[in-house]
Fold:
Amino acid sequence: MSRLVAATLVVFLTALVFPANAPQQAGHLSFSFVQPATAQTTAKKRKRKSLFRILFGRKKTKKAVVKRRTKRRTTKRSKTKRSVRKTAKRSTKRRSKNRVRKRVRIAGAATASSVAPKTVEKIEGAKKILVIGDFFAGGLADGLDQLLSDAATIIVVDRTKGLSGFVRNDIIDWPAVLPQMVADEKPDYVVAMLGSNDRQLMIEGGKKLKKRTPEWDAAYTNRVASLGKALGATGVPFSWVGLPPVRFGNMSKDYLVFNEIYSKAAAAAGGQFVDVWDGFSDEERAYSRSGPDVQGQIVLLRRKDGINLTKAGRRRLAFFVEPKIRQAFESGIGLAGLTSEFGDRPSTFDLETFAPKKAIYDPVTSRKTVVVRLGDPASDGGLELAGDKSPEKTVGLPKTGGGLSGITAVRSGRADDFNWPPSAAPTAPVSAVAATN
Structure:
């Protein structure tokens, strides 16, 4: 029994030392201990390193490195993009601020520097200013309303039609509708300004007339004269405002011709023609988009289209018409209490004598300054030649006893006689010359 147990133990130990799948070589026994299969496989993998693996490393490790590098690059790019976006935003903000500042300097200079006119409530029975015409007249009505906002006894009535004129009398026939319009509104003054839409084909007596042909000019002059007669027949004082220059040269040339026709029609009807050309042009009487406003600040007077007026341009246009209205109200109508008709602004006419008062320069009260162009030669007396109007010089100095003792009067022809032109030296009598000899 003991032998059987010993044999079994020997067989068991042998199986442990020499496994069945272990390779054996003849005449050689291996006494190494057997390790688990997983450990053996891992050990084999650790020991087996190919040249590719030595050069390029493990696949998983390479992927991780590439991933980390890609992440770093992405992070750098995102940071760069964020910085670029921030820089772009800053530059955009700067540009927008600069644009706003530029607009304030150029277009809004009058608003920033001028005192906003006070607005008062119009009294019942306020005197009416009727404005008729096209879109230029609409801007004029707006400018007059702004300038006269502090006058409680004056109200501006805008009855303009933007597309109207003398050619398209199918839109509105001003000579025909004016009498009824005046009867309805009962204005105390009428301002007319139209003609900017008249550079087009005209239909006269069923016949089409091309622009600016002799037949067209004759028909146009008759239509303008008919409006002048209608204005004069109302018995209301009126002003006919001329057209300003525009950006397009051909239009400006035609406007100059139109202004000449308007001026003659206004004079024939007993009205006043207001020439505003120089107020919207440069030194050469050409179109100018910017210019001084009513406060003397350089602002944009025209819009980008080169025709329409800005808010400052509308006020400047009204600036030329306001003195005519003031003159009519203060000297022609003779209404009581017109000394305060234009608010706190000083009156330019004496209501008792109807004579113009001496101009008082008071920009604080009148909110107006003297507008002088830098290139105007009349501002420094450049139209006069040197010495053309020299003051007369006093002949001689005071005699002895006049406060300066020892100084005698200047004699004509003597060395201290500086009168101009020089007088001829007196000739000594012959007897005196003989006596000295």
